[in-house]
Amino acid sequence: MSKKLKHELAIERYTKFIESNPHNYRAYNNRAISHLKKGRYDYAIADFNKAIELNPEFEAAYINRGNAYQEIGYYDFSIADFDRAIELNPQNGMAYNNRGFTHILIGKYEEAERDIRKSLELNPDNIYALNSMAELHAAKNNPEEACKWLKKAIEKGYNNWGYIKTSRTYDNIRNATCYKEIILEIIHRCQTKTDKNKS
Length: 199
Description:
mainly alpha
């Protein structure tokens, strides 16, 4: 089943559930995530809004809506949502990481590093924060440090290969030897996996 169809079926399932459970904030949040993964940002944000309306202390909806705002370039709204999530739960490492990543996108590198380090302080094995730290150093045009953190993320299990190869956050270091070596290793891993699936 394709991811596109999977998300479409999930939206249908949650819509039916909401019809009989209109006050279930988690269902709105989950339907919103499926909309978000399909790039339907307006629908996603509307559902996140409803989830928050039903439960103003549901921190996950603030993080998810912050991600949606980040995707469409509404960085102030995005940061405000991550701020609220942190206010509700100061131990939520993903809120710090995602706010830090938003700071990278707007060039506020000191704030970004502070947030990402806080995320790693809360969970040293957070693969997304490890990758964010790599992206921070890539944005600062520090390829060796970026590669060091990217290797850590991969060693811990980060495997969004398409993102690593295409995200503009890595543009500054694409010609660096260490980055090219990582890409070659990714290609080798993907080829090995393909060969195993064929056998």
